[in-house]
Amino acid sequence: MRGVWTTEHVKAAEERLMARVPPGSLMRTAAFGLATHAAGMLARTTGGVAGRRVTLLVGAGNNGGDALWAGAFLRRRSVAVTAVLLVPDRAHRAGLTALRRAGGRVVSTVDGVAALRRADLVLDGIVGLSARGPLRPDAAELVAAIGAPVLAVDLPSGVDPDTGAVDGPAVSADVTVTFGCHKPVHMLGAGAVRCGRVHLVDIGLGPELGEPDLVVLEPGEVGAAWPVPGPKDDKYTQGVTGVAAGSATYPGAAVLTAGAAVLATSGMVRYAGAAADEVRARWPEVIATGSVADAGRVQAWVAGPGLGTGAAGREVLANVLHDGVPACLDADAITLLARDPDLWDARDPDAAVVLTPHDREFARIAEPLGVTLGPDRVAAAVELAKRVSSVVLLKGNTTVVADPDGRVLVNTARSAWLATAGSGDVLSGLIGALLASGLDPWLAAGCAAWVHERAGSLAAGGVPTSSSRILDAVPDAIRAARVAVKP
């Protein structure tokens, strides 16, 4: 798993590392890596490096120092470098001296706009990990004048480093070069979009970091965890998934949820509900009945999509919770729990629950418990997971999966094609099947989110798609994960 560390932990790790290396060496190592990536961007976007023009936006502090030192290294490759100093009296002295000695040009903000308009590449070194809030007006004015590709130093200025939130003017980078480790800004919310492609420069920070605050699953890890049949397996040993979803009004929810469970693993799917005929017609391998009581034994349940929020839906949910097996609860099941918290009393305390809310569903179930979904989506998901003793998968462009024990996994989407009706039903079916296979609920939710996102990208192919097509792409998404498993 790829680790992600908060700024508090990164700063502490940097202090420990700097205490045992020569002064300034860490910054020069970082800046050399930054300059290497800058030269690569110039070569790709302009066809060359020598003679090209780079403008540095330099604020106070170490990020500005990184940019200045990188400018000095670029001068050695005959790049014309101009540094725009936003706070001249607080610019990093050693970096500024190095740039001037290398023949770099230094200007104030008055001449900065002209330098930005002539640039082939802009390095954003305005603020670093200590900054919070949007860009100040003078910086925002300069950023608005940029017409060239942007390489951000560690993070795009104006984006919150720990939440990825954007609350006003901020830089949108084509590439972000970060040092030592990935930070939350590279993975969460608007930050993940504003960062563009993220490249990591190793500065020797690894041994000082400790356990990560967040993790990101690699494709091969998803493939290795995904259940596949062995020579001694049969339909029962691989997990039997129960699906309590859909209604006369929303039969499609049942078809999508049950279909995702069918395609996720090679076990068995039992459907219970009013859309039994529709499910049988689309998925003849599903054993479909009219009620949870008649469904037979399952190893996990999926409940909620299209279920309805009336008395009948409440009874179904109570029966699912009472069954004593892991359950993925989505959509109407979340609304029912929010409306009637006493439903939690039907739950077997030893049976895992995975909740999969979008923002509005999160607010319904969390706000009565005193948990508010603000800019820090990770903190909110963790707090709700602890309050309800359940894994919480908070949907969004970045999916956050929080376990009651404090583990957090994030999955950043490469597109927004999953924002279509019924997409969540597919995700729930995938999670339910993985729960039935015996996978750890937190990991099951994370693996399902990865496959779901990949299926959305494959189904779309660059144009709008539908949940039915996303469902059809699930086998190819699983195949992509399995192919990535290291031998």
The tally of domains stands at: 2
Overall pLDDT, averaged? 96
Quick one: overall form? elongated
In percent, how much strand structure appears in the residues? Answer: 15-25%
Share in helix: 40-55%
The count of strands amounts to 18
Low-confidence stretches: none
Question: Radius of gyration, Cα only, in angstroms?
Answer: 26 Å
Short précis:
With 487 residues, the chain is of the alpha/beta class.
Describe the protein.
The protein has 487 residues and is α/β, with parallel strands linked by helices. It has two domains: 2-214, Rossmann fold (3-Layer(aba) Sandwich), CATH 3.40.50; 219-483, Ribokinase (UDP-N-acetylmuramoyl-L-alanine:D-glutamate ligase), CATH 3.40.1190. It has helices at residues 7-18, 25-46, 62-75, 93-101, 112-118, 137-144, 189-194, 206-209, 219-225, 251-264, 276-282, 311-322, 332-339, 359-366, 377-388, 423-436, 441-460, 467-472, 474-483; strands at residues 2-4, 53-58, 80-85, 105-108, 121-125, 150-153, 175-179, 197-201, 214-216, 240-244, 268-272, 287-289, 300-303, 327-329, 353-355, 391-394, 398-402, 408-412. Strands 12-11-10-13-14-15-16-17-18 form a nine-stranded mixed sheet, sandwiched between helices. Helix 13 (332-339) links the parallel strand 14 (327-329) and strand 15. Helix 9 crosses helix 17.
Q: Characteristics of this structure?
A:
alpha/beta, Rossmann fold, UDP-N-acetylmuramoyl-L-alanine:D-glutamate ligase, 2 domains, 19 helices, 41% helix, elongated
